[in-house]
Amino acid sequence: MVLPRNVLTSLATLGSAIAETSYLPYQVRNAGVPVGQLKNISGIEMYISYPPNRNSSTKALLYVTDIFGVPLLQNKLLADSLAANDYLVVMPDLFRGDAISVEEQEAGLNLTEWRALHPTSEIDSIINTTINYMRSDMQAARIGGLGYCFGGKYVPRFMTSSGGLDLGFIAHPSSLTEQEIGGITKGISIAAGTLDGSFNSSAKVRAESILAANNVTFQTNLYSGAPHGFAVRVNQSIPQQAYAKQASFMQAVTWFDAWL
Fold first, then answer.
1. Where are its TM segments located (predicted)?
2. Looking at the domain assignment, is residue 5 inside a domain?
3. Dihedral in degrees, nearest 10, Cα atoms 168, 259, 38, 139
């Protein structure tokens, strides 16, 4: 049966409305209104997204953001999408109100000067405080960490034998060193893009070699046509980019489902 054009249009409109107002398992949301809550914990703003059926066995995820931080809509929606898959998600403000806006980046903001204002020691301290809060106040027995771009450097730093994370996922990490990869002792999943200048296919292969040599449980996926930032911000009109974002989200969720 062939449906009239007006019926098809109505169905498409209805589908878009559903996509913007509800969350489905394994489906990353790209538009709509965030449903999480902002809380100030020990002087740190945290965006917290709760699963629909939270109980004592709920597992928790620490979301370590890119340079756009908590204010970026896509970061909040991604956290909410993870929560919809039965995870308690906590996303701390790593930059204490000084996250970069997309407009500032496009205008050519000096990232070297900005990074100097947010040294590794400061970011480590904020992450430590967040993990401690999740362990104590939230009573999270196991915590997985997700790191995107800027945050992709920091999740591995907390996956050493004495680190506070139990499992990790990183996508298109920036400034990640081989020494930091070599310190990983917990399972990690990595999403890389062929068009990412910060972590390309060669860097992925090198990471695999280091992880394999250290007998670490790992998974890596390489997405064709995916630029830096693809797991968070993409041009939805470009099929390869839209696919990479959705597929990397599924990669993260299935990884945590299996091992956390």
1. none
2. no
3. -110
Q: Extract the tokens encoding 219.
A: 């998974």
In this structure, what CATH number is given to the domain that contains residue 188?
A: 3.40.50.1820
Q: Which residues contact 27 (CB under 8 A, 6 or more apart)?
A: 81, 246, 249
β-strand 37-41 against 44-49: which pairing, if any? antiparallel
Using the Cα atoms of residue 51, residue 55, residue 57 and residue 62 in order, give the sign of their dihedral: positive
Q: What is the pTM of this model?
A: 0.90
How many domains are contained in the chain? 1
Residue 19 lies in a domain: no
101-110 long-range contacts (CB < 8 A, ≥24 apart) are 101/68, 101/71, 102/68, 102/72, 102/233, 105/67, 105/68
| Structural domain harbouring 123 | 28-259
Q: What is the pLDDT along the chain (260 residues), one digit of tens a residue?
A: 333 434 333 333 333 333 444 677 899 999 999 999 999 999 999 999 999 888 766 799 999 999 999 999 999 999 999 999 999 999 999 999 999 999 999 999 999 999 999 999 999 999 999 999 999 999 999 999 999 999 999 999 999 999 999 999 999 999 999 999 999 999 999 999 999 999 999 999 999 999 999 999 999 999 999 999 999 999 999 999 999 999 999 999 999 999 99
